[in-house]
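Revision sheet: structure tokens.
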Amino acid sequence: MIEMSNSKQRASDLKNAYDHSLEQQIMGRGSNLACRDEELWKQVEGPLRDGDAQETHCLGLDPLSVMEESLKAAAMASATRAARGGQVKARGGLQGLAKAFEVLEQAALNLYLGPWREEYKVVKMYSGMFTHYIKPVLSMPQIKKLFGLLGYQPSSSRHEQLFLQALAASLDELLHLSCAFYLARCECRLLQAALGKHVGEPQWELSLVRERQRGNNLQVCLPGVWKMNSSLVG
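Predicted:
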């Protein structure tokens, strides 16, 4: 089990567990794709659910801030549509964020496992994956910041492309970031399950993320979120 002691120990435990899972995945299935290990998820779920959310995300990334910014934009767009008589549920939300974090995890893993490979030196923002999974949930400043952690910068000569100027992180730091993006995915998964029938409703999702930003565990978060959004029920 992952031990949650101090911040450095938590980060080390999380990274080591993730690294071990990645090694087993590559050895067992020859796959270097983003983590799908249900055993690792079970280890991470408890600390995420019961601990201080801010302390658990201790790997050099603040996913809750990314989520809050994205969900705030989704909630505003949803309110505008509702005022015009449109659908309340927005594209993206926690489900979309989980997929965006998965794409980022894969990008970090690509550089960690094959930093010499030419195909990893450019990210095409007009590709199908980017158009479907990144742009609907992340703003351009967020895209630049998150991909910038990996060393990607917008091209000055080629529109809609990010180029790897140089590895901004060591291999160990890339592993940290891969794990951090995985942990962000786990956070999205946990919050989706907690919201139940209200998953996909921007204001509910935003309220829960904001409670998590205060460091509250899920048991503390949910009553406040329910009370805050009770007028929307029914």
